[in-house]
Amino acid sequence: MNRSRLAVVALLAVAAAWGSTFFLTKDLLTRMDVADYLALRFLIASVALLLIYPTAIARLDRMDRGRAVALGITYGIAQLVQTEGLRHTDASVSGFVTGMYVVFTPLLAAVILRHKIGRWAWIAVVLATVGLGVLALRGFSLGTGELLTLASAGLYALHIIGLGAWSTPQNAFGLSALQMVVITCVCAVGAIPGGFSVPSNTRDWISVIYMALIAGALALIVQTWAQAHLTPTRAAIAMTMEPVFASSFAVLFGTESVTWRMLTGGALVLAAMFLVELAPRRKFEAEVQHLAQ
Questions:
Q1: What one-character DSSP code corresponds to residue 281?
Q2: Which residues contact 227 (CB under 8 A, 6 or more apart)?
Q3: Where are the transmembrane segments (predicted)?
């Protein structure tokens, strides 16, 4: 398996980790404030990364540090904006609107990085978008919640583009560690107005630690490494598998049942994935892989 294929598999694992947190987070937020939960989650993840590789950040050059700070601020704000938007709209609508980063990514990449997006990539984007809509959309009205969530989708797209342009196999760990520290600071600022609280029982602590270490620290390291080998468009399409995994975990471990929406939407997202992977490679050769370091 070549590195680009391995990177796609790695991003699928990241999407699975993110999808596994859906029912856990939904339950946890009935007892914790959003900003408190995010700050604690990313703090634990930051400490873990720094303990594993204490000199990772110090090994980054000045430019990489600046890029990591920019990426961390972007992702941290996206997390806060997305969760605030969720307070004002249905979770199903929020899921679809957040998934619009698969559309924003190639559009913004074309403008910012002057990427040439091939026909097959556009077809895959359309398939993935329709699949996300089938999975999550049950009525749509563009109110405050939808606008905030749409803004977060744009920020996630910028984060994907930034990682695709700036990450390398050599700087992946340091970039991840500094991003995590910055994300923690951004979320902590959001937690200041209401005061800071922590989980009150063992089960909640286990959930937070799992989401911090597996869906947080490990997922970001894997994502950063994988995007050193993929274009932003391919990465975004791979990560559209997140709602498919979220639905699967909700059925296996939650209270949801299998529906035609889940089967149809999941099939469309999978079709988009296979289209990107199986289309002739020359269709993607024109895409700019990374910015010069």
A1: G
A2: 7, 11, 160, 163, 164, 167, 235
A3: 35-53, 93-113, 120-141, 147-166, 173-193, 205-223, 260-279
